[in-house]
């Protein structure tokens, strides 16, 4: 009986840990994808407007940091 309980306890903990890391991985991946998409849009704007990249990067970083807080 104790062995079976131990086995199911380890199985449960493993499932919980794997699910947690999977959730974190998906959330992080989605965040990186969104950020990459906005950087791509900014690069398109640079080509169209022939702007200086440094100012636009500063604005993008400030906007991202403000959205986090």
TrEMBL record:
Membrane-spanning segments: 6-28
Keyword Transmembrane helix among UniProt keywords: yes
Organism superkingdom: Bacteria
Keyword terms, alphabetized: Membrane, Transmembrane, Transmembrane helix
Name the UniProt record assigns to this protein: Uncharacterized protein
Species of origin: Flavobacterium potami
């Amino acid at each position: 009986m104790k062995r079976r309980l131990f086995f199911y306890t380890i199985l449960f903990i493993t499932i919980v840990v794997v699910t947690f890391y999977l959730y974190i991985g998906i959330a992080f991946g989605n965040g990186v994808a969104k950020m990459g998409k906005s950087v791509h849009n900014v690069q398109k704007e640079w080509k169209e407007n022939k702007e200086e990249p440094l100012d636009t990067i500063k604005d993008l970083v400030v906007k991202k940091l403000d959205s986090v807080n």
